[in-house]
Amino acid sequence: AQKVTQAQTEISVVEKEDVTLDCVYETRDTTYYLFWYKQPPSGELVFLIRRNSFDEQNEISGRYSWNFQKSTSSFNFTITASQVVDSAVYFCALSGRDRDDKIIFGKGTRLHILP
Amino acid sequence: EAQVTQNPRYLITVTGKKLTVTCSQNMNHEYMSWYRQDPGLGLRQIYYSMNVEVTDKGDVPEGYKVSRKEKRNFPLILESPSPNQTSLYFCASSWARSTDTQYFGPGTRLTVL
After folding, report:
1. Labelling A60: which of A8, A22, A83, B70 has CA 20 to 30 A away?
2. How far apart are CA A81 and CA A64, in angstroms?
3. Do A105 and B104 touch (CB under 8 A)?
């Protein structure tokens, strides 16, 4: 069965600090995709990134970066120089191609950026 | 504007009173799905649909029904709601499969008394 673990339930950091959100996954599929979504206090779900299992290159988008390591089944998300607007709940998600078309989300990490 | 819409946004109802939450997308997406979000449990998939007349169970389908008679619409039906179905519900769509980027609706907050 597929599984996504976000062990950090809640994190608080002071503005301008760097913060890393962890995501560990389990799957037997050889082809799978990983996602990160952001849910700000307003409640909507905002897509951040999609990564397939064959692409282990790290991704950087402005202050955001993602580190995908198949060897440790992890897809961690780092915010550099955090800002108050980064305060949100962040979800990691997994979907495989081999068996079914389900999507499994982690339980989310609530991030507080303190001014 | 490309979007997923849900109605109603907020609903308070009583146990046993059938209700439907509508979901519609204007992006010609094949894949649509429903999730519920509960504190401490994250998002859990209820049902999904790969195409018209094709639906399948997610991880928490008990107590819910769906239908996909048209490509753009994917209503969620609670035939006899119970208090444990009080939750925040999201509809989402994607181009073809679950492995494509999901576009989410704004959410429906349901309270069952």
Report:
1. A8
2. 9
3. no
Residues of A whose CB is below 8 A from B48: 101-103
Q: Residue A97 — pLDDT band, cuts 50, 70, 90?
A: confident
Q: Cβ(A77)–Cβ(B79) under 8 Å?
A: no
Q: Which residues contact B76 (CB under 8 A, 6 or more apart)?
A: B20, B21, B23, B34, B46, B47, B64, B65, B66, B89, B91
Per residue in B57-71, is it b (16+ CB within 10 Å) or e — as a string? ebbbbeebebbbeee
Query: Could you tell me what percent of chain A has a pLDDT over 90?
Result: 88
* B98: closest chain A residue by CA: A101
Give Cβ neighbours of residue B1 (< 8 Å, ≥ 6 apart). none
- Asked if residues B35 and A39 have their Cβ atoms less than 8 Å apart, the reply is no
**How confident is the model over A16-32, as pLDDT tens digits?**
999 999 999 999 999 99
C-alpha torsion sign, points A10, A4, B102, B91: negative
Beta bridge partners of B109: B10, B88
- Phi and psi torsions of B50, nearest 5°: -85, -20
Question: How many angstroms separate the CA atoms of B61 and B95, rounded?
Answer: 23
Q: What is the pLDDT of residue A1?
A: 80
pLDDT, one tens digit per residue, over B33-78 is: 999 999 999 999 999 999 999 999 999 999 999 999 999 999 999 9
